[in-house]
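Ticket #4471: structure export looks truncated?
Reporter: QA, pipeline team
Priority: medium

Steps to reproduce: submit the single chain below to the structure queue and open the exported record.
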Amino acid sequence: MTTVQFTCSDCAQTIEVNDEMRETILAAGCPVCTTDAGEDDFTAE
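Actual output as written to the record:
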């Protein structure tokens, strides 16, 4: 399972996520502030 860092472009929250969580964030937005997320908000560990 791949692990990546998600950093919200709006609230700057950074969390480590797996593939399933990444897909959920892309579909639903930041889990903290619900701002839309894009591919550029994720970086490899």
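Status: closed, not a bug. The export was complete when the record was re-opened. Leaving a note from the reviewer for reference: The chain has a mean pLDDT of 96.
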